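To illustrate the input format used throughout this study, we show a single complete record. The first block contains the structure-token representation of the backbone; no residue identities are included at this stage. The design step must infer an amino acid for every position from geometry alone.
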């Protein structure tokens, strides 16, 4: 799947630094894969007070997270235990916030329809209602490029006008599309501006999905084979670029010149690659050899 992308340089990464007024934001899913990188980048900008919210009772910081540790100590960051299925918890974390970055994580929840629905769809409803009650100005939702893919045909050189398919490749993508639609529908209601970002195949440090699956494949006997023509291409997106796109989206929502309000944006590295080229590059960095056989 190759998608026509929006350049995430809608605004410079240090946009807003010409203002001395600190803005307060909430990063829902702030201990997840994308959330952690986004929190770090917001703190580096220097003009944000960051509230980190996630489902764990307390954050277990890694030794490399010195920036976040210092921010907790200096009150430039704070942590909230939030389950998006619990609206009062969301409101407690959201009071006094002007911007919400919504990057929910499903890592430790049961893999059944009810859990997925209550977290993804009902969670989105709760977040939107909390934003309206707390007078939040901006809500940026981390969606997925998969919401336009039905699994039956390739998608190449399209833009964000491509509609949702009549059927989805899997249950999670279906539910993500519903959550995305709810967020977009909430735009300009009670003063809330919203937008959705659709990253594609995100990878990078602390990745707990794409990289582990590739390593598991490399450890199996199937790593020796390429099945099919091996000409299929995908868009892959480095996690730092996804975090940067969230910040750019917020800058655009704040801008009186150009606005992302009510819109969706595909986010990629702007370099679609053949899977047969991408996978060996990743595995070789972990010390694995290239594939031996193709058929």
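Output of the design step:
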């Amino acid at each position: 799947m190759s998608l026509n992308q929006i350049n995430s340089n809608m605004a410079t990464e240090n946009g807003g630094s010409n203002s001395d007024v600190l803005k307060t934001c909430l990063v829902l899913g702030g201990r997840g894969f994308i959330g952690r990188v986004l929190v770090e980048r917001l703190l580096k900008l220097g003009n944000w007070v960051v509230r980190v919210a996630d489902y764990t009772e307390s954050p277990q910081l890694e030794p490399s997270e010195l920036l976040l540790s210092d921010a907790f100590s200096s009150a430039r960051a704070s942590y909230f235990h939030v389950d998006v299925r619990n609206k009062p918890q969301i409101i407690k974390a959201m009071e006094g916030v002007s911007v919400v970055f919504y990057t929910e994580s499903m890592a430790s929840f049961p893999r059944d329809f009810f859990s997925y629905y209550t977290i993804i769809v009902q969670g989105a409803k709760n977040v939107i209602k909390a934003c309206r009650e707390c007078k939040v100005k901006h809500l940026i939702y981390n969606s997925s490029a998969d919401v336009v893919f039905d699994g039956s045909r390739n998608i190449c050189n399209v833009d964000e006008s491509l509609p949702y398919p009549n059927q989805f490749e899997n249950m999670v993508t279906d539910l993500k599309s519903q959550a995305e639609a709810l967020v977009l529908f909430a735009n300009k209601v009670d003063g809330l501006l919203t937008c959705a970002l659709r990253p594609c195949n995100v990878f990078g440090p602390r990745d707990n999905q794409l990289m582990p699956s590739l390593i598991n494949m490399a450890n199996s006997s199937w790593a020796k084979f390429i099945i099919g023509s091996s000409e299929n291409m995908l868009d892959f997106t480095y996690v730092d670029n996804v975090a940067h796109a969230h910040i750019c989206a917020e800058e655009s929502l704040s801008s009186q010149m150009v606005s992302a309000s009510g819109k969706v944006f595909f986010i990629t590295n702007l370099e679609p690659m053949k899977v047969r080229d991408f996978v060996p590059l990743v595995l070789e960095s972990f010390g694995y050899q290239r594939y031996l056989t193709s058929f």
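Structural context for interpreting the output: The chain has eight helices and 13 strands. Residues 113-133 form the longest helix (21 residues).
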